[in-house]
């Protein structure tokens, strides 16, 4: 087993009118390089919360997330997010005064990616996802929701992060485009030895991943 990314007794709860509401309970799991993972479960079960904890966007109430042998909180959430992981949000979180390829070049600059021609690389990745050069140079606000989703995915790919965390990455895409995204994720894992972890409601998507996990009564279990 080559477990680069691990959850150790991860728990999360919040207070609601004086009552404690447990979302995640003692989650323990090791993610291996070169594999794709789907996380499924009903709305409100804690999928997005788990993704936020794994992404260093929130701190757990108990336990910790380990990346490359180190607690990510000790590593520093900002450095961890900048260099080690790539996040794909449902809301895209693109910079709206930049065009598509500029968003990707900006992400590479922030991650200190050494690439002689970042624009060319950005356009190449976008092209693989069906965003052609003319569209890549358009104001990001003039792209459709599905196109913006693909730009967000391209930005994550361009960072060269070892772990990609995605929240419903095909939610705004048609079937054919969704399949293209899935195949890109599979290639990233199998060929580049990355870890791809996807939260999804799409059972067809989940079945194509190497491992399917479910949040059940706050626990993370293999299906």
From TrEMBL:
<keyword id="KW-0813">Transport</keyword>
<dbReference type="GO" id="GO:0005524">
    <property type="term" value="F:ATP binding"/>
</dbReference>
<dbReference type="Pfam" id="PF00005">
    <property type="entry name" value="ABC_tran"/>
</dbReference>
<dbReference type="InterPro" id="IPR017871">
    <property type="entry name" value="ABC_transporter-like_CS"/>
</dbReference>
<dbReference type="GO" id="GO:0016887">
    <property type="term" value="F:ATP hydrolysis activity"/>
</dbReference>
<dbReference type="InterPro" id="IPR003593">
    <property type="entry name" value="AAA+_ATPase"/>
</dbReference>
<dbReference type="InterPro" id="IPR003439">
    <property type="entry name" value="ABC_transporter-like_ATP-bd"/>
</dbReference>
<dbReference type="InterPro" id="IPR015854">
    <property type="entry name" value="ABC_transpr_LolD-like"/>
</dbReference>
<dbReference type="GO" id="GO:0022857">
    <property type="term" value="F:transmembrane transporter activity"/>
</dbReference>
<protein>
    <submittedName>
        <fullName>Putative ABC transport system ATP-binding protein</fullName>
    </submittedName>
</protein>
<feature type="domain" description="ABC transporter">
    <location>
        <begin position="5"/>
        <end position="223"/>
    </location>
</feature>
<comment type="similarity">
    <text>Belongs to the ABC transporter superfamily.</text>
</comment>
<keyword id="KW-0547">Nucleotide-binding</keyword>
<dbReference type="GO" id="GO:0005886">
    <property type="term" value="C:plasma membrane"/>
</dbReference>
<keyword id="KW-0067">ATP-binding</keyword>
<dbReference type="InterPro" id="IPR017911">
    <property type="entry name" value="MacB-like_ATP-bd"/>
</dbReference>
<dbReference type="InterPro" id="IPR027417">
    <property type="entry name" value="P-loop_NTPase"/>
</dbReference>
């Amino acid at each position: 087993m080559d477990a680069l990314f691990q959850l150790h007794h991860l728990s999360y709860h919040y207070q609601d009118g004086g009552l404690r509401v447990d979302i995640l309970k003692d989650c323990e799991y090791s993610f291996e390089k070169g594999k794709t993972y789907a996380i499924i479960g009903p709305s409100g079960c804690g999928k997005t919360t788990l993704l936020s904890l794994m992404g260093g966007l929130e701190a757990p109430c108990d336990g910790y997330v380990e990346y490359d042998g180190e607690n990510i909180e000790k590593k520093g959430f900002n450095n961890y997010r900048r260099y080690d992981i790539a996040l794909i949000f449902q809301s895209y979180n693109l910079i709206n005064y930049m065009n598509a390829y500029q968003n990707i070049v900006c992400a590479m600059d922030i991650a200190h990616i050494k690439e002689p021609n970042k624009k060319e690389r950005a356009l190449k990745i976008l092209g693989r996802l069906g965003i052609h050069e003319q569209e890549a140079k358009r104001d990001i606000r003039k792209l459709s929701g599905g196109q913006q989703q693909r730009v967000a995915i391209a930005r994550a790919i361009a960072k060269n992060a070892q772990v990609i965390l995605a929240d419903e990455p095909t939610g705004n895409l048609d079937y054919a485009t969704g399949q293209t995204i899935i195949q890109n994720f599979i290639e990233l894992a199998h060929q580049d030895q990355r870890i791809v972890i996807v939260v999804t409601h799409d059972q067809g998507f989940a079945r194509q991943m190497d491992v399917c996990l479910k949040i059940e009564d706050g626990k993370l279990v293999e299906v």
